[in-house]
């Protein structure tokens, strides 16, 4: 399922579209377009040029300017590496239109017919063009396409990025302290709340809490200063390590679940629970 790391892979892939001008929109699934009609989206973006591609949490944003005014300097390129150094770079000046892409649990991005991620964890092994929900067609015959079997993603004009919390990749201990607050909600549920911390999904949350030695069911507000520091270190470490390995599904905990169900750190039998409505794996021996 696309979490921060997968969406960052999509961001790097989509940077091929920087400098291209949109000449047409395909939106065969009107339900997939949020807050507007497909015709309204097409009218807003047709004739614009992509000047930047950004990521905020699990949200991918294309910054677009009116092609009549010229695309300006193509911003957003040159962000190589497994994980972006910054969640949002922005283009030169304010864009005329911002197009937000969300990928839900099974959404994949295809650029010029190629997919940076061939198959998502827990998604169907089939790859059907009937699952294409939205596409941008560019001058010269190139395209950007969103394929989503379960239709849990979506496309929106000018998404409200202010609704998202701090990007997980940029979160400091103080950011996390504010995000957790004095909440009695389970720690994992708070990390999954995109309005608090943007980008962490189910797989990353389990890996992060396993690395930090924190029980996912603990009240979020119960962490002391040292535990918040450990959590921040685990967030950064997990994102960097798993980004280099190839995605959110490559964590040590997930591998152990698939291998023998024992904690790689201390050999204890891993515990399976439902926390915050999500299947959760943890180690009862060292996660407190």
If you had to describe this structure to a student in words, what would you say it looks like?
The structure is a single chain. The chain has 288 residues and is an alpha+beta fold. The protein contains 7 helices and 14 strands. The strands form 4 sheets. A 5-stranded antiparallel β-sheet has the order 1-8-9-6-7, with helices on one face. A 5-stranded mixed β-sheet has the order 2-10-5-4-3, covered by helices on one side. The chain has a two-stranded parallel sheet with strand order 11-12. A hairpin with a 2-residue loop joins strand 3 and strand 4 (59-66). Helix 5 (202-212) crosses helix 6 (225-245). The longest helix has 21 residues, at 225-245. It starts with a helix and ends in a 6-residue tail after the last strand.
Strand residues, percent: 15-25%
- State the distance separating the first and last CA atoms: 27 Å
Topology order in helix (H) and strand (E) letters: HEEHEEEEEEEEEHHEHHHEE
Percent helix among the residues? 25-40%
Number of strands: 14
**How many strands, which pairing sense, and closed or not: the largest β-sheet?**
5 strands, antiparallel
Q: Rounded to an integer, what's the Rg over CA atoms?
A: 20 Å
Instruction: Order the strands across the largest sheet as they lie in space.
Output: 1-8-9-6-7
Number of helices: 7
Pairing-aware structural class of the strands and helices?
Answer: alpha+beta
Uncertain stretches of 5 or more adjacent residues: 70-81
Shape: elongated
The pLDDT mean sits at 91
């Amino acid at each position: 399922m696309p979490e921060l790391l997968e969406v960052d892979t999509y961001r790097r892939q989509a940077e091929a579209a920087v400098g291209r001008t949109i000449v047409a929109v395909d939106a065969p699934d009107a339900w997939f377009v949020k807050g507007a009609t497909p015709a309204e989206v097409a009218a807003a973006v047709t004739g614009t040029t992509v000047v930047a591609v950004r990521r905020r949490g699990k949200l991918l944003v294309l910054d677009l300017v009116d092609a009549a005014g010229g695309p300006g300097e193509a911003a957003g390129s040159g962000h190589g590496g497994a994980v972006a150094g910054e969640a949002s770079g922005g283009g030169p000046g304010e864009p005329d239109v911002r197009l937000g892409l969300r990928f839900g649990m099974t959404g994949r991005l295809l650029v010029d017919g190629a997919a940076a991620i061939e198959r998502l964890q827990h998604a169907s092994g089939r790859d059907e063009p009937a699952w294409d929900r939205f596409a941008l067609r560019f001058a010269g015959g190139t395209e950007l396409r969103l394929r989503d079997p379960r239709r849990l993603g979506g496309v929106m004009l000018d998404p409200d990025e202010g609704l998202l919390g701090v990007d997980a990749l940029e979160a400091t201990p103080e950011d996390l302290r504010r995000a957790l607050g004095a909440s009695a909600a389970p720690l994992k549920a708070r990390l999954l709340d995109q309005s608090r911390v943007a980008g962490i999904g189910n797989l990353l949350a389990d890996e992060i809490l396993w690395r930090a030695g924190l029980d996912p069911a603990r009240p979020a507000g119960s962490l002391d200063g040292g535990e918040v520091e450990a959590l921040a270190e685990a967030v950064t470490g997990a994102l960097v390590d798993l980004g280099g390995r190839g995605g959110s599904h490559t964590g040590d905990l997930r591998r152990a679940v698939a291998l023998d169900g024992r904690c790689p750190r201390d050999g204890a039998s891993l515990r399976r629970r439902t926390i915050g409505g999500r299947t959760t794996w943890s180690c009862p021996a060292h996660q407190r």
